[in-house]
Amino acid sequence: MFKIFKEILDWQGLKLEIETGRVARQADGAVIVKLGKTSVLCTVTAAKNADPALDFFPLSVHYIEKAYAAGKIPGGFFKREGRPSEVETLNSRLIDRPLRPLFHPDFKNETQVICTVLSYDKENDPSICAMIGASAALTISGLPFLGPVGCARVGYKDDEFILNPTANEMLETDLDLVVAGTRNGVLMVESEAKELSENIMLGAVKFGFEQFQPVINSIIKLAESAAKDSWEIPEKIVPKFYPVLKKESKEPLEKIYKIKEKKKRQIELQNFKTNAFNDLLSKNDDILEQQFSSCIKEIEREIVRKSILEKSERIDGRNLDKVRDISCEVGVFDNVHGSALFTRGETQALVFTTLGTSQDEQILDRIDGEFREKFMLHYNFPPYSVNEVGRIGSTGRREIGHGKLAWRALNPILSQIEDFPYTVRVVSEITESNGSSSMATVCGTSLSLMDAGVPINKPIAGVAMGLILENEKFAILTDILGDEDHLGDMDFKVAGTEVGITSLQMDIKVTGITEEIMENALNQAKDGRLHILNEMKKTIKTSRSSVKENAPKIIKLKIKQDKIREVIGSGGKIIKNICEKSQAKVEIDDDGNITISCLDKNSGEIALEMIHDIVAEPEIGKIYEGKVVKTMDFGAFVNFMGQRDGLVHISQLKEERVEKTTDVVNEGDMVKVKVIGVDDRGKVKLSLKDAIQAD
Q1: Which of 46, 16, 8 minimizes the C-alpha distance to 30?
Q2: DSSP string of 159-178?
């Protein structure tokens, strides 16, 4: 019934299995990849015909985690998976990035890649399985895919690189890096690092590249047995009008691309395109708009790239290694906990920091368990930032991806902070964009955190690098513009401190780059990063010594575990009373750690005093003021420390003999008492007469 093909690889001690022919046989390509006990089904399906109205490749990649893979039932009312989680979105982008540049440039058929996690052992990363599976499914599908692609996750600990570290190993590693590429070169890098040097980062990429070569060989072996017939690509027809269009467009486009201001350049460019198209249309009425658009794009690409490679002339007139002018401001708005405005050329990020309590932590429900996150960074890219009218709604994939990139850059520094009790949320509003808004977010976030009094010991900055590559000749660009990114061959983002790199992301639009290019890009990026850090320091050098007055006040203390019950009270009665009277939030854990959070100092002090009254041990010889809560024949009970009562024996009421307790005190009386002892059962002995004598 089944014609099954399988390749098994001993991948540095772990069994990697790639199988096809058993499941999803109707798809153009389908494989199941197993690593340890983690399994992912990857399928590829493409439309049989291209939409003639499209001038781009409509590829969509979906990474889907199923709760059953980890033996869980989804949370929520409907008890089924809903919209993609942040992890699913990020992994979808991760898989897409090395695959997209390897399709034949003339292939425009809608293509869909779906990677479904079927089983997860909570040790081996399903995203690595998914990327390998997507590559294998494409390779055997017959689609015009110039792969296969291999990938690996790399860790670093004790001066050694670790291949595909387990979940437990990731807790101890100084690096989390994913690298993907072909036999010939690297296509994609995604990483978070604890201030590692350029050499270590380059070594990690090289290590990962070498380690995934056997995976590529296994995919090729599978394809030799199981590959389907190759799809035919329609021969590319160069429009008859192209030579004339190129001749007539070259000079005006060269002038347009010398306009430094983005908005003015876009207006001139749009006017030129409209006039040129209408002119062609008047001479030949069967011209399709997407044909014209593709031709113009090709001419633009040639003009910009040639200018950079041959003349070292960039669109805005900068040198290849120069960063645009920078402006930094902090404390931009009064009623927020921290704010910053970071402007680099025509890219601008307005960044806000909000401090909250532990109750504001983000709860993440993932297939590997439930987690709490104290640091959140959200990136917004409104359409006005690029002078467009666009849809406003739910957060897009791009916004999630850029926000996570900036988060990775800051997290290694924030995770080092001890004894800072706040939950931190940062929101970056991109108000202008002309290249690398994610790195502007990194810089703006660093400034905003310092303005809010978050004790980061080192500021973090980021810079985006570009590449123009033609045969053996290449040029590396520092702080790329939007057009240089669009028309170039690489988007290489590097963030870090003065000490080292905290995040690195690289996407290549060609079939791979050499180690030489990557090394040069890293070194040039370091110079750019240090320059930006120096500019930031002119505005604020270190974090403010304290949080602002309008930030929540948080008090932490620790009590003995046997006192927890006393603070909480029966049915939570005592702790509810503390919260009501003080107007503060009080949280207590099983270890006796108490967090008091409030909007003003006075509320916190009231709650703290009430807790101290409950947990404090009475000092022998100390005089307290208390209230008589009960009288008996043998004495009176006095409430003198919070909820704590003590007994004044009838013999301790007065120097002389007392016949009846009520002859001296009655319920409700306020009295001063002295602690004279504590018996073996913890009962407190009080004296009224000794307190009177002491006065």
Answers
A1: 46
A2: TEEEES--HHHHTT-SEEEE
A 10 A CB-CB count for 68 gives: 15
- By mean pLDDT, which of 20-34, 107-121, 273-287, 436-450 is the weakest? 273-287
Give the residue carrying structure tokens 């039932």.
73
12: left (phi over 0), alpha (psi -120 to 50) or beta: left
What is the identity of the amino acid at 157?
K
Tokens 């294998």 -> residue: 136
Q: Could you tell me which residues come within 8 angstroms of residue 32 by beta carbon, excluding any fewer than 6 positions away?
A: 17, 18, 19, 20, 22, 23, 39, 40, 41, 42, 118, 133
Distance CA 441, CA 379 (A): 8
Residue 153's pLDDT is 97
Handedness of CA 433, 437, 441, 442 (dihedral sign): negative
pLDDT tens string 199-247? 999 999 999 999 999 999 999 999 999 999 999 887 777 788 888 888 8
Q: Give the tens place of pLDDT for each residue, 638-693.
A: 988 766 789 989 899 888 898 898 888 999 999 998 989 888 777 889 999 888 87
Please give the pLDDT value at position 125: 93
The secondary structure of 586-597 as a DSSP string is EEE-TTSEEEEE
Percent of the chain with pLDDT over 70: 99
Query: Token pair of 440, please?
Result: 């502007």
pLDDT at 618: 82
Q: Write down the residue that tokens 């036999």 correspond to.
A: 183
Rounded Cα distance, 609 and 676, in Å: 23
Q: Which domains does the chain have, with CATH numbers?
A: 5-226 (3.30.230.70), 242-311 (1.10.10), 326-537 (3.30.230.70), 553-615 (3.30.1370.10), 623-694 (2.40.50.140)
Please give the order of strands across the beta sheet that includes 38-46.
Answer: 5-11, 14-20, 29-35, 38-46, 111-119, 59-65
- The residue with tokens 């997209």 is 100
**Contact call for residues 16 and 34 (beta carbons, < 8 A):** yes
Coil vs helix vs strand at 180: strand
Chain mean pLDDT for the chain: 91
DSSP string computed for 498-551: SS-EEEEEEEESSS-B-HHHHHHHHHHHHHHHHHHHHHHHTT-SS--SS--TTS
Q: Tell me, what DSSP letter sits at residue 618?
A: P
Q: How far, in Å, CA of 297 to CA of 285, rounded?
A: 21
Residue 506 has which token pair? 């690289």
- The two counts, helices (H) then strands (E), for the chain are 16, 29
Tens of pLDDT, residue by residue over 343-356, are: 999 999 999 999 99
